[in-house]
């Protein structure tokens, strides 16, 4: 099958995100940047189970993805045939959920005779600050923090990534969710814990800052979660103070490792992305650290901290514009995918 290649002058990329429990659709234009995006979160669906149920997530993506694509096209005031390329999340993520986005993207691209490309979910988060007017310049250090990932990455350019350190057990977002569950805060736990922590008094309890007393940039948050459980068992009526102690310990640990990464690499720019980057306590710690050592810290806007289609459209735009594309007839997903495996590309303005 022949597909139609287009001039990057008018290039419009459709992005489809379906890696977990949020269906996101975005449209990125070469001329105008992000022109439309829509998101449906499955929080209410999974609340009664206390976490994401993969089968339910997959089924809901099937129901949501096409209506959301229609809504995005309507918002942008364009037709489906105006799209020049399609990007979708190929991984990492839940296999069933990834298959939905991949199948829809490949089918649409085949019918429209346009290029299609599977992109890396965490590269989407990493580059999400490039959707803003004020953008970080390469090279920089990135802190990627979410329910499934906690890692520090040295970013030389798009596709040139070196993982400096990552969590040896629970990701920080996972630790937030599990600690919230211990405290009986329900799902999603991270935001609920952060809200409760605002009512707590700092210093009532002192939690450990894991792995800061040894060299290296690895993380470990499982022990911090256990410390919270043991403290709650002894002080069941002091939930807010426990939430505050946990949040302070977690965010200060992240801040200390970020400072160490900046000093070791000699970088002066830090990018923070992923769901946990929306945490205000973390932002306060990192902004203070940045001012102290003369580093600039960048974040995506709040709506692009969590999973979204805009960041997938952006990454797809960069890579598709450089000629990368998939075979239309193969459904390839990567539930596990190392960020360092990606290829370097030149950024197209």
TrEMBL record:
NCBIfam families (alphabetical): gcp_kae1, T6A_TsaD_YgjD
CDD domains: ASKHA_NBD_TsaD_bac
EC number, as in UniProt: 2.3.1.234
A molecular-function term among this protein's GO annotations: iron ion binding
Cofactor: Fe(2+)
Residues binding Fe cation, per UniProt: 121, 125, 307
Catalytic activity entry: L-threonylcarbamoyladenylate + adenosine(37) in tRNA = N(6)-L-threonylcarbamoyladenosine(37) in tRNA + AMP + H(+)
Name of this protein: tRNA N6-adenosine threonylcarbamoyltransferase
Record's GO cellular component terms: cytoplasm
Family: Belongs to the KAE1 / TsaD family.
Keywords: Acyltransferase, Cytoplasm, Iron, Metal-binding, Transferase, tRNA processing
Top enzyme class: transferase
Cofactor binding: number and manner: Binds 1 Fe(2+) ion per subunit.
GO biological process: tRNA threonylcarbamoyladenosine modification
Pfam families: TsaD
Known function: Required for the formation of a threonylcarbamoyl group on adenosine at position 37 (t(6)A37) in tRNAs that read codons beginning with adenine. Is involved in the transfer of the threonylcarbamoyl moiety of threonylcarbamoyl-AMP (TC-AMP) to the N6 group of A37, together with TsaE and TsaB. TsaD likely plays a direct catalytic role in this reaction.
InterPro entries: ATPase_NBD (IPR043129), Gcp-like_dom (IPR000905), KAE1/TsaD (IPR017861), Peptidase_M22_CS (IPR017860), TsaD (IPR022450)
Boundaries of every Gcp-like domain copy: 34-313
Encoding gene per record: tsaD
Cellular location(s): Cytoplasm
The organism of origin for this protein: Bathymodiolus thermophilus thioautotrophic gill symbiont
Residues noted as binding substrate in the record, renumbered to the chain: 144-148, 177, 190, 279
